[in-house]
Structures are given as structure tokens and as C-alpha cells.
Design a protein that fits this description.
With 420 residues, the chain is an alpha+beta fold. It folds into three domains: 101 residues, Orthogonal Bundle (Butyryl-Coa Dehydrogenase, subunit A, domain 1); 101 residues, Butyryl-CoA Dehydrogenase, subunit A, domain 2 (Beta Barrel), CATH 2.40.110; 162 residues, Butyryl-CoA Dehydrogenase, subunit A, domain 3 (Up-down Bundle), CATH 1.20.140.10. Helices cover 47% and strands 10% of the residues. The longest helix is centred in the C-terminal third of the chain and has 37 residues. The two termini are 40 Å apart.
Length: 420
């Protein structure tokens, strides 16, 4: 299956011959620079303008963006691999980049061609966080002549520092003929109509994730910048994006992708912790060993490293497989040989949760087997542990919290809301 646009590109692609392999290699090559930036990113709350320019140059923000509108339209597996590489340098920076660039998939899937042309713009430079939770009580999307007025405050807008747009859920009040009818809709608001607050500080971990709040005061957006499918429409055989681009990657349900974005940071953190642990055990000796050996030559540290290496590989394999399955489900949904409903979406989410859990367990074992010197302030191992622990504190992405919904979707029962 060739994943390319079915219509000529309307916006030039910066590097028409760039391949997925080359983009992944670029991410791997940037890991040392990302690691160098980690401490400053924690202080600032997000990565630097210089690193942002490197990400733009590498094409990361365009990885999932439709080729017709200036993107590379690479597959989800490639996107996950790129983001894992960056997160291995620093999970917070990886989180910020991933959630700034991944939502081109939502635009490409759920908005019609005219709206996509306006949102991606004449040069195809598009960056947007997506805040599915945390709108203030006064947040609203109100139908007015010519479009919708949006107001409110949204928390946890990861990826917003360099964004061109904001995406988030808002309560709908009124609608235009043929427009959205659901109580909650996704709104897309251009940069000039929202304010980013400098309030992402004093967190235990993921301090560099750029998860700042956004405030919007009476923004006026076009009618087609509002979408009622929220996380994806499971009813139709094809999404509007599939019809526009002819690519099954744009024929999915977003909640089958969203947990994978976050899992990238956890799998990357596990790889980064493995690198640090290997440096440690190759340069230090067991405290009470009767033999003059390094820790990597001792069976206890070999066991811990071997388990963590296998678990991290397993976590990444699960994550990448969900990216492949997302496209396979979209293809089967389009040609009528299968389906992509909430049951499939919840299963993929559950698998992504398991990838994060396995990565966490690997990282925790590496942390507990590290020396005190490696977990002092400023040391990567301490930062990896704090980032792991902060993610584990997120109730939406606890495997057992989602398990009930996975079963409900499988059995065709009404799926409970996440009352968290």
C-alpha cells in the first residue's frame, strides 16, 4: 500500500525526496543536542528557539501532515520512531515536540479540503497542541453570523510554545444549519487569537514539555474550523480526510493514536535510561566485590540491564505495532473488509498504555540499580525518573483505568465516560 496523496500537491513539500528512514536518522542524530538542552528546557518550560529551528529544518512537524498541503505524509510508525528518538534525548522535549506535531493527523482526517487549506496555510507550516480536557467552566463555542466565537481557558496544552494554532474541546452553544450538533466540539484557533500563559513550572517531572495554559477571549473562527467528531467518527465507511487524500491513515479514530503520542515519551525515556545505566556500569565497580571487575561484568547488573533491554525493545515493538494497526484498520474500514470502531480504538489505546507500563517498569529497575551519584540534580537518570513518575501520575493513562472501557467496547456495551 502506497501512502501518498491522490491529488497533486497544492503546497510545495520542502524536500520532496525525503524518506522515512532519513527523517528517523535525523532524529537520532539530534539526540545529543536534545540532551544538552534538557536542563535549560526544564527551567524555561519548553525547548529553545534554536532547537525549534532544528526541528523545522528536519521536517518533524510535517511528518503526518498531508502531502497535498506541504507535509510528508509518512506513516504513524515512522512518526512514533522519530518521536521516540527525540524523547530518548529528553522525555519532556520529546513530549512537547510530539504533541505539537501529531495533531496534523486530526486535521487531515476530520476537516474538509477547504478548511485544511486554510489551516495548513500557504506554506504548510502547521503546529498545534490539542487539549481534550481541562477547559475552564466559562469556556464556550458560540454560533454567530459568519462563524463561531470561542472563549475560555484551557490547561495542559502540550506543544503550544511554537504553535501556529490551538486545538481543544469546547462546549457548543448554538449551531449553523448543517453544522455541529454535539455538546462538545473541537475548535481550531489561529495563534493571533490566543495567549499562552507562563504557568508550566514547579512540576515534579516533564518540566520541558511545554504544557502551558491557553487563554482565548472572543476569538472569531470560521464555521469550518469547528469539528464535532471530537476523537473520530466511527460511523461512516470513510472519513472526510480519506475522501480528500485517499490514504487510510486519515480514516481513523483519534483516541487510537493519542495515547501513542504520550507513550513515545515513555519508551524514549526507557532508552535514555538504558544509555545512562550502561555508562554507569561500564565505569564503576561493585562496592563489596572481592574481584576487581566493573559492574557490567557482574551477574546482578547484567540481569538488570538484560531485563530492561528486553522490556524496552518490547515496549517499542508494541507501540510501533499500534501505528501499523491504525492504518490497517483504516484501510479495512474503507474497503469494507473490516471495521474501525470504538472497540478497535480502545484496544489500540490499551496496547499503548501497556507499552508505557513496560517502559516504566524497565526505567524503574534501572533507576533503583543506579548509584546515588547518578541521581543528583542535573543528572539525566534523575530527570528520566521524574519524567516517568509524572506520567504515571496521569489517571487517564493508567492501564487499569481504561481496561473497563476496552471490555465494554468489545462487548458492544455502552462505554462509560472517563470520570477522572
Amino acid at each position: 500500500m502506497t501512502q501518498t496523496a491522490t491529488k497533486p500537491a497544492h503546497v510545495p513539500v520542502p524536500e520532496p525526496d525525503l524518506t522515512p528512514r532519513e527523517m528517523i536518522a535525523r532524529a537520532r542524530a539530534l539526540r545529543p543536542l536534545v540532551r544538552e538542552e534538557a536542563a535549560a528546557a526544564e527551567d524555561r518550560g519548553y525547548y529553545s528557539e534554536a532547537l525549534h529551528r532544528e526541528f523545522v529544518k528536519a521536517g518533524f512537524y510535517r511528518c503526518l501532515q498531508p502531502r497535498r498541503f506541504g507535509g510528508y505524509e509518512f506513516d504513524i510508525r515512522t512518526f512514533f520512531q522519530v518521536m521516540v528518538q527525540i524523547a530518548a534525548g529528553d522525555p519532556g522535549i520529546g513530549w512537547c515536540l510530539c504533541l505539537a506535531s501529531g495533531h496534523a493527523l486530526q486535521i487531515g482526517s476530520n476537516f474538509d479540503a477547504a478548511a485544511q487549506a486554510k489551516i495548513f496555510g500557504p506554506d504548510g507550516h502547521f503546529i498545534a497542541p490539542y487539549s481534550p480536557s481541562g477547559p475552564s467552566p466559562d469556556a464556550e463555542c458560540v454560533a454567530v453570523p459568519g462563524g463561531y466565537r470561542v472563549s475560555g481557558k484551557w490547561r495542559y496544552c502540550s506543544g503550544v510554545p511554537y504553535s501556529t494554532h490551538f486545538m481543544g474541546l469546547a462546549p457548543l452553544k448554538g449551531s449553523h444549519p448543517g453544522g455541529p450538533t454535539r455538546k462538545l466540539v473541537t475548535v481550531v484557533v489561529p495563534r493571533e487569537q490566543f495567549e499562552m500563559l507562563d504557568d508550566w513550572h514547579d512540576m515534579f517531572g516533564l518540566r520541558g514539555s511545554g504544557s502551558n495554559s491557553v487563554v482565548i477571549k472572543d476569538a472569531l473562527i470560521p464555521e469550518d474550523f469547528v469539528d464535532e467528531t471530537i476523537f473520530g467518527d466511527e460511523g461512516a465507511g470513510t472519513t472526510v480526510g480519506m475522501k480528500v487524500h485517499g490514504n487510510p491513515m486519515y480514516n481513523g479514530i483519534f483516541m487510537a493514536f493519542g495515547a501513542g503520542e504520550l507513550a513515545c515519551s515513555q519508551v524514549g525515556a526507557a532508552w535514555g535510561a538504558l544509555e545512562e545505566f550502561e555508562k554507569h556500569i561500564k565505569t564503576t565497580r561493585p562496592l563489596l566485590s572481592a574481584k576487581p571487575i566493573f559492574k557490567y561484568e557482574h551477574h546482578d547488573w547484567q540481569r538488570i540491564f538484560g531485563l530492561a533491554l528486553a522490556m524496552t525493545n518490547a515496549a517499542e515493538a508494541i507501540l510501533l505495532r499500534t501505528g501499523e494497526r491504525y492504518v490497517e484498520y483504516g484501510e479495512a474500514r474503507a474497503d469494507g473488509t473490516g471495521r474501525f470502531t470504538n472497540a478497535e480504538a480502545m484496544l489500540l489505546m490499551g496496547m499503548q498504555h501497556q507499552a508505557s507500563r513496560i517502559a516504566w517498569e524497565a526505567g524503574y529497575d534501572l533507576f533503583r540499580a543506579s548509584s546515588t551519584a547518578s541521581i543528583r540534580d542535573g543528572q539525566p537518570m534523575q530527570r528520566f525518573f521524574r519524567d516517568f513518575a509524572s506520567f504515571r501520575n496521569n489517571p487517564v493513562h493508567q492501564p487499569d483505568f481504561a481496561a473497563t472501557r476496552i471490555a465494554q467496547a468489545h462487548f458492544g456495551l455502552p462505554m462509560q465516560d472517563f470520570d477522572l
